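re the bet — no i am not wrong, look at it urself. input seq straight from the record:
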Amino acid sequence: MNTSSSIIKRNRKVFQAGAIVSLVLLIYLSMSYGWRHGALFIVGIVAGTVLYHAAFGFTSAWREVVKTGRGAGLRAQMVMLAVTVLIFTPLIAQGELFGVGLRGSVAPLNAAVICGAFLFGLGMQLGGGCASGTLFTVGGGNSRMLITLMAFVSGSLLGTWQWHLWQEAPGVAPIALSQNFGLFGGVFISLFLFALVWFATVIYERIRHSDIVSEPRSDFSFLRGPWPLIAGALALVAVQVATLLLAGRPWGVTSAFALWGAKFVGLIGIDVSTWPYWSRSGPSLALEQSILSDITSVMNIGIMLGALTAASLAREFSPSTKLPVGQIIAAILGGLLLGYGARIAFGCNIGAYFSGIGSTSLHGWLWFAAAFAGSILGTRLRPKFGLS
């Protein structure tokens, strides 16, 4: 059998396995936990498909600004955030829709956000991906990112262990622009900030280059990708809005990693229930129940399965076991920083940046600034680990 035929056969089997597992899980979740649980699993699958085919990387977009000065990816993120704010703000202000209470992602502005986001930004460049990026690349068959994910889970658990030490960090109470300046004021200020970042990237790109590249991709393919940046941005807005309407709160990723870590160490006899993080009502309840009862975990599993089926359909699922030592070390170190940073900073690139700014919370902007600073350092350090 030639190489081409073996690749087709392998990817066909992977797709069939992914489709069967997805269908079985969908039926089980819907029957055991209700249709909303099943719907959120589907949203996760869609998110994984979108992230894979659109190659919508927060990590690579930020790195591109630092390395080459090209800001198309970051500008696409500003479009994504702007559309999210326009949809989120009136929905959250309404407070309820179809019997589901709606709340935004709002957190304090303090030193924990700054330190945690900086560590996260550093980790995402060393580890090779952000929270959503780690999930969809693992699902797509990236072996190195599997190491990053395991370290991510470990770092998240460490973050819960030391979570209480960061609760008294100096700072100010949560500030949501839509609450402090009204619905229209919050939207206007948010759009102004998006425009500010947009034009800053344009000016910086003009300084570094003589032209502006608005869409760096060509030869689009719906099946194989990459999709246009704007398509990826708008598709992720749809995922975010669907999550809000179904779960009653914005999209999150990393709280599930902490839960996975806690469940694992529980199997080897380590009781985390007495840790302050897990003694709170929400986390303690999640700790007692099945992982499949946790909607964040369900969506994360959906993301990996969605990316797996997308990769196999594109005939690109081809895990490699040959990894240089430097890349393995970077994956472990990056994953630990990602997990720990996200836990103390009230979230990751999804929960704090995307959902926070989408909810007009100023902590999201503080997270963005600190994480971008960490990303700059991480980009400079990548060559030391053999990362291009």
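see?? The radius of gyration is 20 Å. told u. also The chain has a mean pLDDT of 92. so pay up
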